[in-house]
Design a protein that fits this description.
Number of strands: 10
Structural class: alpha/beta
Bound molecules: adenosine-5'-diphosphate, magnesium ion
Order of helices and strands: EEEHEEHEHHHEHEHEE
Number of helices: 7
Oligomer: single chain
CATH superfamily of one domain: P-loop containing nucleotide triphosphate hydrolases
Helix content: 25-40%
Distance between the termini: 19 Å
Length: about 220
């Protein structure tokens, strides 16, 4: 297993007091496996992804990535984890506006010390971005920006890609094409994939689908 969540709980506190969002999550993702995470809006899908990505801490339980328990990590160790082991793709592309497409794509791979120019060229070609490498993010369409964001994540060949509705703000046709590319390239990179999606059509393209309901993974 590349990722294992055991009895993970998470609550948020508002004016009305704490609300428990995740009530004992058990979930495993095998190396190279692709898993679709579905569930109603507000069910805690993004919360779960944030915990798996080391962006936030669980209240209790274990998040085990590649044999290490993230809940035991210091801030520094979690930051290193985010740089080296995991790749995040969100609905907001989070590209760096002052860097060209080419520099955006190599940015995380360089941070992770896995910069591989041959692999990057292959990604740029597969993502249809050859003619845009010298442009800046604001000079691209939404679909093109999302392809850059996917290229940036894949360039670092993370063991696990966490994607939160990555094609949610693209039109259906563009979204499907981008997701197909992401699945293909994740397979080439040997990355496992945990993908949040509302779409049963998209989920059907992955190895397995799990449903988050009532704070737990439904059986
Ligand atoms: P999903 O991604 O499935 O739509 P989320 O994980 O974003 O669900 O949110 C689950 C619930 O937790 C929602 O009710 C949301 O309002 C609440 N929530 C999410 N993040 C926070 C936060 N930082 N502070 C307080 N409440 C939050
Ligand atoms: Mg969400």
């Amino acid at each position: 297993m590349i990722l294992t969540l055991v009895a993970v709980r998470k609550s948020y506190t508002s004016n009305e007091g704490p609300t428990e969002i995740l009530k004992g999550i058990n979930l495993s993702v095998a190396a190279r496996e692709s898993v679709a995470l579905t569930g109603e809006s507000g069910s805690g899908k993004s919360t779960l992804l944030h915990l798996a990505g080391g962006l936030d801490r669980a209240d209790s339980g274990s998040v085990i990535m590649d044999g290490d328990d993230l809940s035991q990590f210091s801030e520094d160790q979690r930051a290193r984890y985010r740089r080296t082991k995991v790749g995040l793709v969100f609905q907001q592309f989070n590209l760096i506006p002052s860097l060209t497409v080419a520099a955006n794509i190599s940015f995380h791979a360089k941070l992770a010390k896995r910069h591989d120019i041959t692999w990057e060229r292959k990604l740029i070609e597969a993502l249809g971005l050859e003619q845009y490498t010298a442009r800046y993010p604001e000079q691209l369409s939404g679909g093109q920006q999302q392809r850059v964001a996917i290229g940036r994540t894949l360039a670092a060949k993370p063991r696990l890609i966490l994607a939160d509705e990555p094609t949610g703000n693209l039109d259906e046709q563009t979204g499907d094409a981008v997701l197909d590319l992401m699945l293909d390239l994740a397979r080439s990179a040997g990355s496992a994939l945990l993908l949040v999606t509302h779409s049963t059509r998209l989920a059907a393209r992955l190895d397995r689908t799990v449903l988050l309901r009532g704070g737990k993974i439904a059986e």
